[in-house]
Amino acid sequence: MAEAAVKTVPLDKARALQWLQTYGVYAGVALLLIVNIAITPHFLSAENFRTQAVQVAPVIIVALGMALVIGTEGVDLSVGAVMALAASVTALYLGYGLVPALLVVAVFAAVVGLANGALVALVGVQPIVATLALMVGGRGVALVLLPQLEDLRNPQLASLGSGDVLGIPYLILIAAVLALLVAFVVRRTTFGRQLLAIGDSRPAAQLAGLPVRRVLILVYVVSALLAAVAGVLATARLQASDPTSLGNLMELSAITAVVVGGTPLTGGRVNIAGTVAGAVLIQLLTATLIKHDLPPSWTQIAQAVVIVAAVYAARGRGKR
Amino acid sequence: MAPPAEVLAVRGLSKTFPGVRALDDVDLTLHAGEVHALIGENGAGKSTLIKLLTGVYRPDAGDIVFQGRPVSFATPLEAQKAGISTIYQEVNLIPLLSVARNLFLGREPRNRFGLLDFARMNREAEETLRGYGVRVDVRRPLRSLGVGAQQMVALARAVASEARIVIMDEPTSSLEPREVETLFSVIRRLRDEGIAVVYVSHRLDELYAVCDTVTVLRDGRRVHHGRLADLDRLSLVSTMLGRELGEVRSEGLTKFTGDHHATDSRPVLEATDLTVPHQLHGVSVSIRPGEVVGLGGLLGSGRTETAKAISGALPTSSGRVTVAGVPLRGGSTPAAIRAGVSLLPEDRKSEGIVPGLSVRENISLAVLPRLSRFGLVSEARVDSIVNTFIERLRIKASSPQQKVGELSGGNQQKVLLARWLAMNPKVLLLDEPTRGIDVGAKAEVQKLVDELAADGLGVLLISSDLEELIEGSDRVVVLKDGAVVGELTGDEVTEDKLMRTIAGDTPERDAVGEAATDG
Ligand SMILES: Nc1ncnc2c1ncn2[C@@H]1O[C@H](COP(=O)(O)OP(=O)(O)OP(=O)(O)O)[C@@H](O)[C@H]1O
Ligand SMILES: [Mg+2]
Predict the structure, then answer these.
(1) Could you give phi then psi for residue B55, rounded to 5 degrees?
(2) What is the pTM of this model?
(3) What residues form DSSP beta bridges with B163?
(4) CA B154/CA B143 separation, integer angstroms
(5) In this structure, which long-range contacts are made by residues B377-386, counting pairs with CB atoms below 8 Å and at least 24 apart in sequence?
(6) Does ligand 1 lie within 6 Å of residue B406's CB atom?
(7) Model ipTM?
(8) Which residues keep their CB under 5 angstroms from ion ligand 2?
(9) How far apart are CA A301 and CA B46, in angstroms?
(10) Contact A154, A100 (CB under 8 A)
(11) What backbone phi and psi angles, to 5 degrees, belong to A246?
(12) Between the CA atoms of B422, B428, B429 and B435, what dihedral angle is there, to the nearest 10 degrees?
């Protein structure tokens, strides 16, 4: 009997895959850290960590919104365009002061989010199509508002981009606070729970009387607002508004961070800690390849490998 | 005559899920031409046993010998190809594909170019389904069919493939009496052809009608096996529940006490002239507080549509609904729920549970805004409500954190009931509330409905289980083709009258008409 038992227990591949999906991203980050400490000169310095963190902060912020959208079984391709739009609008209204400029940015972002949300929730357009329209249109508007790169000289903006508290850059602080906030929203608010229920089974959520449309619209608005924050911070760091290239391919980086972090594309689950780690993983990967003088195309290939691995791990879930 | 050959021998099958021993050292033997009943309470492990046999799950231990050879199927498709075909508890067809494609899934007819031969497929599908009393356009997507018809498609599909064993996990839960008869004749034909059938059902009369042998599971263990005829109903139930025979006998098998006293003569819910193009033609129903109103009728008569139209889930083209005298905004579920009208939907799997969320989150889903302040959830209040209902409905889960998708079918239904009871509604629309629920739990649910009605709740009850409909309802409104064709009140609420009204017996209808003109 005992023998039979041993014989019929399969090597639990599914369990290994599940482990990989939940913790793989942290293991990957740890691995890259160890490898870099061992082989990359000057890797282990406060200055380097600071640079890496400042670079990854906007990706994290965008990915937070993306995670929420993906949790509803959607996707938001317009985030890069919203970053560009934020850059243009900041440049145009900075003359009235930083705060008024930021308010106008928020309005523009909210309008994009509302448009995305309305198309998805009210008209019933597929998220990928709806947000593709705004991805193209949004950058178009950004370029109409500000056709080329413009240097920005505003001390407040400059300090937002490069200032710090106790040695920790504002960018990192803002990203950290937003990550905690979003994680809190997912776990502890009605909005968070309703979002997950809608992502898991929309007909059931509807019949349970959940405000499905309102939640969906709000999710896209939040995503757009977070992208706008990332756009403003990136602009502040550059001290220039660059609507042509700011946020290019950002939607892909954000989706990668979310998926690698263990949030399934099928909705109903959102992993915020994993998303942050996912963004960090991609940043470290890119930095590693660049520091060892490999061409940028290698970074993209490496990124593709990571995505495939993540999707493969995700496939193993559910089946035992 | 030689004894029929053994087609399946299972020894020591075990399976543990995180936190639950779902199956513990279970044996099962099937012979050719044997119809074998597999019974047990919700969560006893019936579906798990079936899924282990057909390669959905891997066993932790045990051997499966099929037609003399040890097997270990990796996928249900492999099992089906080898000759074990299964109708799973949850209809597992593909909703967006056509009826015909679903019927032929995995063994589609091909033309000489190796392409799908749609013409032949549609023709054969139509023919096959007609044999099961299903007349539909087979080119339409499967999801356009009602749950009952979908189940007939699943049945036709399982039987049509060359099987040695056909397993049916609660096949009748959404069938009409007439369809159940069709199913039984199919089972008898299979038996005569020497095919072994495993039959899972919570409806005892069905088991006695078609099954020869029985295996009783309790908490994952086999507690009895043998010939069904050797065990009477009460002994069967007491073995299943693990309670004393006397105890079961004194409690009886149905839990409805029968009459409720409508506390107030003014209806708490009044639906007037509900019309939905092609589905409902001016249906009116009213429910008084403390009253259980049954909706009778055949599949497709508009019972589910009526419940959905009342609850705002189905937009109406005309008609109105008032709750306690206040008109309800049509076509809005949230508005209906706020007014105190809750619907327990018929299709539990796709419209009821949120499978990936926990038991706790599913129970608290609708009531969440009330347990929150400024959008922040009060976890303590959620816990207290959730625990109350898990206890009150005896929901069997390894913990409140377990995913609902992992629960047994009956327990999923209880979770949904809990979701609505937590809302403290004025009117409860129950569409097949005891479908797939074991006798013990069914009695509990029925008792609960009684208690709720006694507390002044208005209940609309839809059930294809006639006994339940008759015993549970104070009044039965009978629908046919989307319109009300009669109403039974008081002493008229009998199975016989109901059947005759459904059949549209002329004298019966005249009587109703006379009564109406009299009054
Ligand atoms: N995928 C799963 N993950 C975890 N637990 C599971 C899973 N599937 C089943 N279980 C547990 O195993 C036990 C047996 O479930 P099973 O579905 O076999 O019951 P059943 O006898 O078919 O009940 P019902 O009559 O309600 O259909 C239950 O406690 C259930 O919660
Ligand atoms: Mg079952």
Answers:
(1) 80, 10
(2) 0.80
(3) none
(4) 13
(5) B377/A188, B377/A189, B377/A190, B377/A193, B379/A188, B385/B422, B386/B359, B386/B360, B386/B418
(6) yes
(7) 0.83
(8) B 46-47, 89, 409
(9) 48
(10) no
(11) -65, 130
(12) 60
